[in-house]
Design goal:
Radius of gyration: 16 Å
Catalytic activity: 5-amino-6-(5-phospho-D-ribosylamino)uracil + H2O = 5,6-diaminouracil + D-ribose 5-phosphate; 2,5-diamino-6-hydroxy-4-(5-phosphoribosylamino)-pyrimidine + H2O = 2,5,6-triamino-4-hydroxypyrimidine + D-ribose 5-phosphate
Number of domains: 1
InterPro entries: NADAR, YbiA-like_sf
Shape: globular
Bound molecules: the ligand Nc1nc(O)c(N)c(N[C@@H]2O[C@H](COP(=O)(O)O)[C@@H](O)[C@H]2O)n1
Protein name: NADAR domain-containing protein
CATH architecture: Orthogonal Bundle
Mean pLDDT: 95
Number of helices: 6
Structural class: mainly alpha
Order of helices and strands: EEEHHHHHEH
Strand order of the largest sheet: 1-4
Low-confidence stretches: none
Distance between the termini: 24 Å
Helix content: 40-55%
Number of strands: 4
Largest sheet: 2 strands, parallel
Length: about 160
């Protein structure tokens, strides 16, 4: 059975990048994956001054609005790096928070799909034909964490709620 997720307050809302699960990457603390992801659009760009404002945004929605503002110039290699950037952040989120790691692992081998009606890249889009790259990342993170458990890189005990 395919598992659809989208908004934070809906079932499996912890799979959304807008969920309130902080991450630390390269020594910087980010309130959500969305804050980190949106800020990375401007690393090395002429508009890098926007990064601290995205970092300080009071909600992920605000961070996303700043990151999507067409007045600011995105780094030229963004399309090449955005999947790698997103995967690193999503992996960090599920390594940091054992309670949602457990939710992810309990989905077994089910297909995970971001049910965004507008986003055909990260989600499946309105007609479900989208690329679902966020769902693919979550499934790949799930596989990686499972492998780490079987190699005992993280202990089974650590996975107990
Ligand atoms: N929960 C949620 N609410 C929204 O309004 C969304 N658009 C999304 N999708 C996420 O948006 C991010 C993509 O942003 P860009 O289009 O690249 O600026 C990404 O995190 C999607 O998962 N989710």
């Amino acid at each position: 059975m395919t598992i659809y997720f989208y908004k934070v307050w809906q079932p499996y809302g912890c799979f959304s990048n807008f969920s309130p699960h902080c991450i630390e990457i390269d020594g910087t603390h980010w309130p959500t994956v969305e804050h980190y992801y949106q800020a990375q659009k401007f690393v090395g760009s002429p508009d890098a001054v926007i990064i601290p404002f995205i970092h300080a945004a009071s909600t992920p929605e605000e961070a996303a609005a700043l990151g999507r503002c067409s007045n600011y110039q995105i780094r030229p290699d963004w399309d090449l790096v955005k999947i790698t950037v997103m995967r690193a952040a999503v992996f960090k989120k599920f390594m940091t928070h054992p309670e949602i790691r457990q939710i992810l692992l309990v989905t077994g081998d089910e297909m995970l799909v971001e049910d965004s009606p507008r986003d055909y890249f990260w989600g499946c889009g309105l007609d479900k034909s989208g690329e679902n790259n966020l769902g693919k990342i979550l499934m790949s993170v799930r596989t990686e964490i499972r492998q780490m458990i079987s190699y005992s890189v993280i202990s089974r005990k650590e996975l107990s709620p």
